[in-house]
Amino acid sequence: MNIPSLDLLDKSDNHYTTLNCSIHSSAEQIQVEYKILAKKYHPDTPTGDKETFQKIENAKRILLDPNERKSYDQWLNSGLSITYELWKERAHKNMHWSNKTDHGTRLLDSQRTSSTEKPSAEPWTRHRDSTIDAFRAGKL
Fold first, then answer.
1. Band (5; pLDDT cuts 50, 70, 90)
2. Angle, to 10 degrees, between the axis of helix 50-64 and the axis of helix 66-78?
3. E strands, the chain, where?
4. How many beta carbons lie within 10 A of that of residue 15, not counting itself?
5. Number of H helices, E strands in the chain
6. What is the C-alpha separation between 116 and 114, in angstroms, rounded?
7. How do residues 63-116 score in pLDDT, each as one tens digit?
8. Which of 17, 53, 79, 126 could covalently link to 41 via disulfide, CB atoms 3.0 to 4.6 Å apart?
9. What is the mean pLDDT of residues 47-66?
């Protein structure tokens, strides 16, 4: 496994600081800061730097997408020493239990394999409890 260097794990060098914004900046403020930096670092300009421009471009892409920004903010506050890309890649796999989809299975009468098994009078329903729902939603 390729472990990223420690300088990549420094969260003080994040997308907000890359774009000279704060966490509380609006999308319009982020867009303005991006345009200023993009003009300065675009590879076609004399002061251009392709690496810096790509970093700015990536920061803008993440911070202007509301869902991506929410995910990025969760990573910043997570306290984990892994890169955002690695966290994003693995977070949904390791937190499969937090999905709100119901994966309960129930065989239909036509799918039953045993001929001796008789269908019940009432269909099976999952017991719903507000405490269990809050736990599954990550609120407890």
1. very low
2. 100
3. none
4. 20
5. 6, 0
6. 5
7. 999 999 998 998 888 877 888 888 888 776 655 555 555 555 555 555 555 555
8. 53
9. 91
**14 contacts 76 by C-beta, under 8 angstroms:** yes
Q: Which two tokens stand for residue 80?
A: 């984990």
Which tokens hold the place of 124?
Answer: 């099976």
Distance CA 82, CA 87 (A): 6
The confidence band for 58, taking pLDDT boundaries of 50, 70 and 90, is very high
Judged by average pLDDT, the poorest of 20-24, 44-48, 89-93, 100-104 is 100-104
d(CA 27, CA 18): 15
Token output for 138: 């990550």
Nearest Cα to 83, choosing from 91, 97, 23?
91
**Both ends of the chain: CA-CA distance in Å?**
34
Q: What does the block give as tokens for 20?
A: 């000279």
CA of residue 118 relative to chain centroid, distance: 45
- Per the CB < 8 A criterion, the answer to whether 112 and 119 are in contact is yes
Tokens at 24, concatenated: 């509380």
Quote the distance between the C-alpha of residue 31 and its chain's center: 21
